[in-house]
Specification:
The two termini are about 30 Å apart. This protein has 9 helices and 6 strands. A hairpin with a 5-residue loop joins strand 3 (about 90-100) and strand 4. Helix content is about 40%, strand content about 15%. Strands 1-4-3-2-5-6 form a 6-stranded mixed β-sheet.
Length: about 210
């Protein structure tokens, strides 16, 4: 196996992209450490399409499983919950929730084509559970203030959602505050600061803002 380490070219950095310098230096240090470490120390590879999801991942949970997951968050993840909204235009399609122990839950809202995923009463019960719990735990987003929070408010969540957001954080804002010249998209943050492997093999054309910072 040939290991490749993508780095910003020095000429790219000295022409004004100074935000990449510290991450290039860190990547070179990590490479040296990884060469000296055992193979077990390497970060895991992302799952390939078609492979079984992790045991703690629920991609198509039942209504009861969703409500139990959500209502249990104050106990199972008091440090907070990460939220990611996927939408088609102004319409919420999916809500992803990740606990502190990396357990993940996917809540579908719309099917492909725009059809409602749940019966109206079931969706009301699921949203009611989230409305009850979300203001009580810190919420973590990537570009939440500009995107996810407005989407949730449009779905019917109360304004108190912003208070829970204030107790949590926004990884995009934190990145732009700590490393002002560096990219703040989620994959860059995960790779550079979370020791994760790149997971986006196909990049959508457009600016960072057009891609919602993901």
């Amino acid at each position: 196996m040939v290991e490749v380490l993508p780095l910003a070219h020095p000429a790219f950095i000295v022409r004004g992209k100074w935000g990449h310098r510290q991450f290039s230096v860190r990547a070179l240090r990590d490479l040296r450490l990884r060469c000296e470490a055992s193979p077990e120390a390497r970060p895991p590879l992302p799952e390939e399409p078609g492979t079984a999801p992790l045991p703690q991942t629920m991609l198509h949970p039942t209504k009861a499983a969703i409500i139990a997951f959500v209502l249990g968050l104050p106990v199972t993840s008091p440090e907070g919950v990460a939220i990611d909204i996927e939408a088609a235009g102004p319409h919420v399609r999916q809500i992803g929730l990740a606990r502190w122990d990396e357990s993940y839950l996917s809540i579908m809202v719309l099917r492909e084509g725009g059809e409602q995923y749940w019966e109206r009463g079931d969706l009301r019960d699921i949203v009611s559970a989230m409305v009850q719990v979300f203001p009580t735990v810190p919420l973590w987003f990537q570009n939440g203030q500009n995107y996810d929070i407005p989407e949730l408010l449009e779905l019917g969540f109360p304004e108190s959602l912003s208070d829970a957001y204030a107790r949590g954080g926004d990884t995009m804002f934190m990145m732009r505050h700590a490393y002002q010249d560096a990219p703040a998209d989620l994959q860059f943050i995960g790779v550079q600061l979370g020791s994760m492997m790149p997971w986006k093999r196909l990049a959508k054309a457009g600016t960072e803002d057009e891609q919602e910072g993901k």
